[in-house]
Amino acid sequence: MAEESIVVIGTGWAGFTLAQKLDDKKFNITIISPETTSPYTPLLASAACGLYDFSLAEEPIRRKSKNFKLIKAYVDDIDLEKKICFCRPEFTALAHQKFEIPYDHVFIAPGCTNQTFGTPGVAEHALFVRNVHDAMAVQKRLGDILEMASLPMKTDQEQRDLLHIAVVGGGPTGVELTAELYDLVHEDFSKLYPDLNGKITIAIHDVADNILTAFEASLSEYALESFKKRDVAIKTGSHITKVEADCLYTKEDGRIPCGMLIWATGNKQVPLVEGLPVLKSDHLPRILTDTRLRVLRPDGSVFDSAYALGDAADVRGGELPTTAEVACQKADYLAGAFNNNSWDKPFEYSQRSLIAYIGQHDGVVMGGKTWEGPRAWLAWRRKNLMWTRNWKKKILISMNWFLNYFYGKEVARI
Question: What is the pLDDT of residue 2?
Fold first, then answer.
């Protein structure tokens, strides 16, 4: 019979992985999250561009084989001394019916939200790529601007303005989304919309001096040159000042018309993390933990019953990246420590290869070895399969790739 109660806050990479791997025969596990699915974030760009069904880019939290309770709600606050979570339902009509959940151990992994840096108009007019709902919105907007541009009364300039796609963010998310959009436009839409050939344009905007800055300089430069050869505009050093429904403004170029703007940069902490009275990093900021992932008080001492992981947390002095790789490794560490009641070893992050797809069966890889080209694209494909958490989805994704090759994507069939 389970004795200790565990609360897991969040169902992103960290929360979902942890909840699935904790021993449900040893602990009473409660998951609190406003979502009932967990997205495979590296697959969202591909799903948005029609490589496979959206259901393959997310995983349901509930499992017949797992014994835990899922509560669809937000955690507004935690009393870390009294060990109580203060919650409200995710449903707007029930939000006033607040409730409390006590715990013996709490794992704080609510993830992050979109950081707009206070840029006017971003929240109202930009699209994001954090979950399947976002990916669906990208696909729908892409279809809408193509159909609007196809209307007979549209002038050539109006078509070009509508068909300009701005992607803000030169990291892996923005780069891979741009790559998938480019492939879709030039391999599929060029045949479906022949009258619009040459009028669809894509630009990446980033405030940094290069794209893929987490990669070695040679790989970043390779990706930059690859995009330029394919007429994808790379606007580095671009400072966006305002976004409107049909355009964006930058300090450098002024008003830039666009039919779709995708915001793929920046993390912002959720209100729960912002409000917790704990030690935090200067950057972002993130909850700081010791090497056993226990939350630190402002004076540096630990809360023995509170742990933090995922994008919301960092190991003190570690400055680890906010990636799925880090989140999953932390979840594996905590699940193993709790299941085996073994805390002999501190958490140590093992850096894996960084991979990014840059379009047209090309990619870049940085790890033990660095390389680019078709082999890197194949490595990216393999890693996409590795992210999926069950064999059913691995098989279905592989089948979709095979069927797409012979019959075309669902959004552009042969």
Answer: 54
Residue reference for tokens 């409000």:
275
Nearest to 331 by CA among 104, 41, 19: 19
Read off the DSSP letter of residue 395. Answer: H
What secondary structure does DSSP assign to 245-296, as a single string?
TTEEEETTTEEEE-SEEEE---EEE-HHHHH--S-B-SSTT-EEE-TT-EEE
What does pLDDT average to in each consecutive run of 10 residues of the chain (414 residues)? 86 97 96 96 93 92 93 98 98 97 98 94 97 96 97 97 98 96 93 94 96 93 95 96 98 98 94 97 93 98 97 95 94 97 94 92 88 92 87 91 80 57
Q: Output the pLDDT for position 1.
A: 47
| CB neighbour class for 318 (10 Å; exposed up to 12, middle 13-18, buried from 19) | middle
Query: Is the link from the previous residue into 285 a cis peptide, with omega within 30 of 0?
Result: yes
The residues, ordered by sequence, that sit 6+ positions from 1 with a Cβ below 8 Å of its Cβ are none
Tokens 């580095």, located at residue: 236
Burial of 337 per CB tally in 10 Å (0-12, 13-18, 19+)? middle
Tell me which residue of 38, 56, 113 sits closest to 392, measured CA to CA.
56
Kindly tell me the sign of the dihedral angle through the C-alpha atoms of 174, 206, 328, 136.
negative
Q: What is the pTM of this model?
A: 0.94
Judge whether 14 and 333 are in contact, CB under 8 Å: no
Distance CA 311, CA 295 (A): 14
Helix (H, G, I), strand (E, B) or coil at 366: strand
For 355, the enclosing helix (H) or strand (E) is strand 354-359
